[in-house]
Write a structure and sequence with these properties.
Two copies of one chain form a homodimer.
Chain A lengths: L3 H11 L12 H7 L2 E6 L9 H13 L6 E5 L3 H13 L2 E7 L4 H9 L3 E5 L3 H15 L2 E2 L6 H14 L8 E5 L4 H13 L4 E7 L4 H8 L23 H8 L2 E5 L1 H15 L5 H10 L8 E6 L6 H9 L1
């Protein structure tokens, strides 16, 4: 479906707008694990998460031809921030539809990037309906959070930044929410090195991709996890078949394992990682000590400071 | 007092044992400040603080000649961890004397490096007496936390890593506890570029160096601050005259300003910085917006995760 050149050309297009995050490692975490762990810290990416890659890919793909009046999306999280930031960069209008119970800090961050905020009720279909209505009425481009080929290729540029190590890498662990990040990374890596294993990670309390993957069909589930970026009730129509085709395994992690991984990041690496970003280290720490070369994608670092206490004082 | 070659030779000696920490900056913090801020993140240094530089300098200076039976110091904080780590690296014994009310986490960290822990009462003179007794009885080398020329030269290697930018730097902000870090950095920088201003930073609640500097003589004070690494009741005999000679100014910061700086590190840079390490950004944010090139030394990142909540939930 994808060719190596797809990712290379998207990377070239988005390069001015993103950081190429530098791999981090920790001797003490390696000692705990018994494997060589290489962490790709997208928490240190612009806007604090990988989402800027997909947003930049989508917007630059449009900017090559169409005239853009504005962009719109429905996300109070990392995707919303990424779209707002990229729109500001390109000097186009952005409207972000979010639930009226979203934290003030997130609203402020998006307003800080100059985005218009539209508040609707707390149900996710209300947000999507409103975003699509705005797109229709104003002629704005809707930027999907994951189920879009341009967005997926953008996230896949992380894979491109990993393949310079070639087949020395044994496994790459990737968080799964709607599946955009893992679809992109798995498609990219397998295009170059089919032998590298790509492992998806979901919280046990929010495992719609795992459930669908086992059943062989898109399945809706209830979600309950601190990993707010991974609370997708079902996989995407585009991402699900890509996961079926390219992902080698999906592993589940407990809430306590996510918190323990966050604590390790803070204590050993002095790094703030959001729960959704910490799931990969949680999964890696369950691997057998076999001196393997394991890569963990740290998807983001946007977490309310006051929430950190809640996780560790309970 | 010091020659440029002093710092160069110490740097060469300790290079195998330390990281040369890479300068970090944040576009959003620069926008808040109106200056160009360059942060030297010693929180990402081995053992989580700059203290390893001084410990490495002292131990390698001994290792060149004397036979060492063991080393001993009195510190439950970053200096204790640094000495324990360096002793392990050299395969020599380390004994760390700490108060019996020290947090378990710190004791575990030092035991993790193979150090022997000796518990005494909570008064600081009890620790020092016991450490010197052990040094005498066992023939161990006592490693002072700051008032020692080898230790000071070790901390000064941070200055050496900054001078490659030459006179483009307007000011360097350095936390002050006992004065070892700023003595080293100021001596080093002024040896190369006397025009670069070196500014010391102390918490208002613990400003023994400021008080002594104003009075012109070593003065003892009471201390009360969340910046536990900066709770020195008086400057050192060696560090005080160096500060008088080389430091251009000393500024004081409030507890709330320290907390706000810690929050900025977490939110904007995804970085865990301990209160003592955050004082420099707190001071920098009080500078006028003049597009100056300001360097902040981030001395360490060792903070109990559960304490972070206390700082931000109050």
């Amino acid at each position: 479906m994808f060719k190596p050149s797809d990712f290379i050309s998207v990377k070239r297009r988005i390069k001015p707008y993103i950081h190429e995050t530098r791999i981090l490692s920790s001797k003490s975490i390696n000692e705990i694990s018994g494997n060589n762990i290489f962490l790709k810290p997208e928490c240190l990416q612009k806007t604090g998460s990988f989402k800027i890659r997909g947003a930049a890919s989508k917007i630059t793909s449009l900017a090559q031809g169409e005239k853009i009046d504005g962009v719109v999306t429905a996300s109070s999280g990392n995707h919303g921030q990424a779209v707002a930031y990229m729109a500001k960069t390109f000097g186009i209008k952005a409207t972000i539809v979010i639930p009226n119970n979203a934290p003030q800090a997130k609203i402020k961050a998006m307003e800080g990037y100059g985005a218009e905020i539209v508040l609707v009720g707390p149900m996710s279909n209300e947000r999507l309906d409103m975003a699509q209505k705005i797109a229709r009425e104003r002629g704005y481009i809707y930027i999907p959070p994951y189920d879009d080929l341009e967005v997926i290729k953008g996230q896949g540029t992380i894979g491109l930044e990993l393949i310079k190590w070639g087949e020395k890498i044994d496994k790459v662990f990737v968080p799964i929410g709607g599946g955009g990040l893992i679809s992109g990374i798995a498609s990219c890596i397998k295009t170059f090195y089919p032998k590298i294993k790509v492992i998806g990670v979901e919280p046990k309390g929010s495992c719609s991709m795992y459930t669908s993957w086992i059943k062989g069909e898109i399945t809706e589930i209830a979600t309950d996890t601190i990993a707010d970026g991974l609370r997708a009730v079902k996989p995407g129509e585009i991402t699900f078949p890509l996961v079926q085709k390219y992902v080698d395994n999906i592993v589940l992690v407990e809430e306590d394992e996510i918190k323990a991984a966050m604590a390790l990041y803070m204590e050993r690496m002095k790094l703030i990682v959001e729960p959704s970003g910490a799931v990969t280290l949680a999964a890696i720490l369950k691997e057998e000590a076999l001196n393997q070369n394991l890569v963990g994608i740290v998807s983001g670092g946007n977490v309310d400071i006051t929430k950190i206490s809640q996780y560790f004082l309970e």
